[in-house]
Write a structure and sequence with these properties.
18 strands; six-stranded parallel β-sheet; 41% helix; globular; alpha/beta
Length: 574
Amino acid sequence: MTTVAENIVSTLHANGVKRVYGIPGDSLNGFTDALRKDGSIRWVHVRHEETAAFAAAAEAALTGDLAVVAGSCGPGNLHLINGLYDANRSRVPVLAIAAHIPTSEIGTQYFQETHPQELFRECSVYVEYVSDPVQMPRLLEVAMRQAIARRGVAVLVIPGDIALADAVDERVTVIERSRPIVTPAPEELERAATLLNAASKVTILAGAGAEAAHDELVALADRLAAPVVHALRGKEFVEYDNPFDVGMTGLLGFASGYRAMEAADALLILGSDFPYPQFYPAKATTIQVDIRGEHLGRRHPVDLGLVGDVGATAAALLPRLKGDRRRAHLDDATAHYRKTRAKLDELAVPSRGKAPIHPQYLARLLDEAAADDAVFTADVGSPTVWAARYLHMNGKRRLIGSFNHGSMANALLHAIGAQASGPGRQVVALAGDGGLTMMLGELVSLTQNRLPVKTIVVNNSSLNFVELEMKAAGFVNYGTDLINPDFAAVAEAMGIFGRRVERSEDLPDALAEVLAHDGPALLDVVTERQELSMPPAVTAEQVKGFALYAIRTVLSGRGDELLDLAKANWRQLF
């Protein structure tokens, strides 16, 4: 007889699943043994279940296909939760198999007992408990459909004894992904065209919803004479081959992106859930297009909300728009972007003498040296800032991060899934020293699984972005110091090629050597701790915060920090 677990594996195989990420455990024995017997699906053994979930999220983001993760009962699947939050908020299809304690012991406070269906409810589009073999494979099919159709996390909670039970139904079903084309009603499109035709300064804000809609977006921008501002998750789909792109806005963005939105009398938001209300223009007419109607107007009031795919909606809107527009707003915005871009590039220079390396210089060199189809992953914090500002997307490169959930330590974990699902592709993890040390054991997963990930460590001996937030709020930096090891030596001890660089003059050759290495490699780059990553618009409160920081720092006897701050940032302060 076929067991429930064996039927699960057969169904996953039939649906093209090639990997399952996780850590074995006794409640998972039926499932892992079924994987062993089948032999067609690779078990990617990591050192922490959180890693498994992040890795699955990266695979799903890159392939668009269902990725699978498994965790044993109690603490095992509980460790999945942070990565599943990331996957669900990034809207990628992931199936999580959450093993449970024996059915007969549920509700008795048994060893390792939790209530997974309650724990995972907020970080999933579907979660259900399998209490009887008769529910399978139907619930598996429902879970897979939910994950694929709703682009999110589906969780099946399965006690170990249920997984080992004989299957009542052995059918194997292939879940086809439907691809509907959604456009607003004709009268809604006419209303949008009326608003846009009446505006003299239109700016577009485009996000991740612009994926697969690049050409339609560019054509729409041309017709509207509109500069295109991109949100962080839209960067890889929007900025390449786009003469209308004027960079990002937001805390990580460019002054030009902020200015293009602030100057607009009409803002067209395409597939973006950009979360910061203070960066939206206060007086512009706002039109928002999103496939998820519940997202319309939740960040900023809209004059018109349209439910539809970005590409299809842009194509349907285009012939309704007048084409004889003045291009002064566009010309002004693109000229300002060129100046902003030049100023940012001026910061990406070698440090003088023995000074720590400017992180902008590291990011610029990485951009120049990486493969044309490289996959970059970036830790939350300053690595994401430098990736957003200095890594150029070209339509083939990808940029993966915890951009919605904002979790530390994601870069290496995402890189594991990216490399496992793309074995012939260059994968580069731009990791912060805080993030890397949080999940340092996962370097061993690279060697164990033979994953040639290149890890670039931005080593500034601090929780750097947290320090900047403290400065901006007027607080003296506290609790953010990191006493780091020589990461290159740690990597070598784990069987990974390692290099450490402390001077700018040594960086180009070391970076080239690490990227060219045949296997996993790590570059430990000692960077400037006091580097400022200023937002595009410095508010009065932030100016006040920096002044308070300076006063409090002097009074606390740490005035030398101010000298270091000025010395590190003289290029952008004067």
